[in-house]
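Hey, quick one: can you model this chain's 3D structure?
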Amino acid sequence: MSVWMAETLIATTLLMAMVMMLRRPVARWLGAGAAYWLWLLPLARMLLPTLPREVAAPSPLHNVVDQAGLPALLEIAPSPAAQAAGTSIPWLEMAIGL
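Sure thing. Here's the predicted structure for all 98 residues.
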């Protein structure tokens, strides 16, 4: 699992919690339609790619994950058969994301 996947899952979870807290007050003030539109925030976060390091500074989560040594722990060593075939499609990450 890449750092991007971890950041996306954590940010999306926090956004969903925020939507759950704001849903009733927003529905009371602006109506039910506006409360349902709040769910586009977590969806947008899941679908939007992150900016490259050259454009944006790394997030605090990225720094913590790098310092903890988690990228090496989360990397999956490719099998010899996959190396021979030359495939580099991250099937595990795609399955976890779905």
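One thing worth noting: The mean pLDDT is 75.
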